[in-house]
Specification:
The chain is of the alpha/beta class and 308 residues long. It has helices spanning 42-55, 72-84, 98-106, 123-136, 152-155, 158-167, 183-195, 247-261, 267-283, and strands at 14-16, 27-32, 64-68, 87-93, 110-114, 142-144, 174-178, 200-206, 241-245, 288-293.
């Protein structure tokens, strides 16, 4: 039987961190989302939104999907569009890694750039990217994905929640994950809470721009999270706690994961693990904390994360 390449999305491994978790802490388990076809969890949402748009008649074969992106979602959308017969136009920025740009281009994406302020990720940058993509999508034969307001995106993570529940045999005490558009944390939580409403949900954001925590917007360099303003679909009742992690903490943990656990990932993963270790220490031995390895470190080789 011939399968479309998008059939390779999901059913990723879940492993237990072995070396960086203190002895008296809860167990920390990580879903290896870099096992998806493009090396990122965003493959899940890209497939969900494109399939939904096609089913609703919003896009037809040969049409162009337009989206603003820090690159990870853009790579996944470019991949799904290539596999399903659509074109893709990304609104991107020099604030994000060059690997993401080149990967989108490899999948045939057209790219429009919005210049950043010294490669800083800020509210102003994200909002300009959004406005640019909206304008581009007004052309004939173009469809704006608009991930921040696209309700279909969270459905792509329902399978992730189910996979975690099954792989952990239902023994999940806390789920820790970073916030960008909110789809991955909310979609996963929806399913976990269907199984057990007592699972403690922790949202992670950059300490330098902790808007979910009620602080002022700022700039940071944790790619893919912390857009600098409250995401439109944010549901505070869907989390029990908000944790903040600095850019330097996230980068340092990404390096530690590679050297001490053999897990090669990006800075948002570093942030996830920093927060997960804090929760694990608080919960103590005998409990289980689950977090996400968001994407592959191969996307960050041109940045200072892995530059020694």
């Amino acid at each position: 039987m011939i399968w479309n390449v998008t059939g390779g999305i999901g059913n990723t491994p879940l492993i237990k961190l072995q070396k960086i978790v203190p002895e008296n802490s809860a167990g920390v388990f990580a879903k290896l989302e870099w096992a998806n076809p493009t090396g990122s969890m965003k493959d899940r949402m890209a497939k969900a939104v494109i399939e939904s748009a096609a089913a609703k008649g919003k896009i037809n074969p040969g049409d162009t999907v337009v989206e603003y992106t820090a690159g990870t979602t853009g790579v996944s959308l470019a991949f799904v569009c290539a596999a399903m017969g659509y074109k893709f136009h990304a609104v991107f920025s020099d604030a994000f890694s060059d690997e993401k740009r080149r990967t989108m281009q490899a999948f045939g994406a057209q790219i429009t750039d919005v210049k950043s302020d010294n490669k800083k990720i800020t509210e102003a940058l994200i909002k300009e990217m959004i406005a640019t993509s909206k304008k581009l999508s007004e052309q004939s034969g173009h469809w704006w994905c608009d991930q921040l307001n696209n309700h279909d995106a969270s459905k792509g993570y329902h399978a992730l929640g189910e996979e975690i529940w099954q792989q952990m045999n239902g023994k999940v005490d806390a789920f820790v994950h970073c916030v960008s558009t909110v789809h991955s944390i909310h979609g996963t939580t929806e399913i976990l809470w269907q199984h057990d409403k007592n699972i403690h949900i922790v949202a992670v954001e950059p300490d330098e721009s902790a808007v979910l925590s009620g602080r002022a917007t700022g700039s940071h360099k944790i790619e893919g999270i912390g857009i600098g303003f409250i995401p439109p679909l944010w549901q505070p009742e869907m989390v029990n706690e908000i944790a903040t992690v600095t850019t330097e903490e996230a980068k340092s943990m990404a390096r530690r994961l590679a050297k001490e656990e053999g897990i090669f990932a990006g800075t948002s993963t570093g942030a996830n693990v920093v927060a997960a270790l804090r929760i694990a220490e608080r919960l103590g031995k005998g409990k289980n904390v689950v977090t996400i390895i968001v994407d592959s470190g191969l996307r960050y080789l041109s940045t200072d994360v892995y530059r020694y």
